Amino acid sequence: MYKLREAGYEDFSEVSRINNTKKNSHLTDTYFQLDKTSFTAIMEAENRKLYLVEKNGSIAAFLLFRIDHGSRTIFIEELSIDADFEKKGLDEHLYQKVERFAGKKGISQLFAAITTKNTGVHQFFEQKGWKREKEVYVLNMNE
């Protein structure tokens, strides 16, 4: 059974393992190496959220997003899935979480910069109603 939860400091090693492994699914083919300093900054930022999906105590996927309360927008910074858990619907669980969060907070737009060559990632967002604007996908919550 899968469990969706917000990340804690203790999750650094598992999140960095998923983030730093190229064979895993990501929004972009060029990724940043997640180190302890960057992870701590994410955890301490009031405008950033990191959600995880775990199975049997192991993290299988995560989604990181930034909130801009002034413009009522969310920018999905990263969505990464361990290759062993691809095609299991984990992206859907994480996506629904960010969409519910956006609805509760009165967010009007979601953004995601998707530069991967993995067409499945692009199709996932397009099927959800996102529109491509160059390398950025946008979802207007009020349409």
What would you say this structure looks like, in words?
This protein is an alpha+beta fold and 143 residues long. The chain has a single domain (2-140), classed as Gcn5-related N-acetyltransferase (GNAT) (Aminopeptidase, 3-Layer(aba) Sandwich). Helices cover 29% and strands 32% of the residues. The chain is built from four helices and seven strands; from the N terminus they run βααβββαβαββ. The chain has helices at residues 12-19, 36-44, 90-105, 119-127; strands at residues 2-6, 48-55, 58-68, 73-81, 109-113, 131-133, 136-140. The chain has a seven-stranded mixed sheet, with helices on both faces. One of its GO terms (molecular function) is acyltransferase activity, transferring groups other than amino-acyl groups.
Descriptive keywords:
143 residues, Aminopeptidase, globular
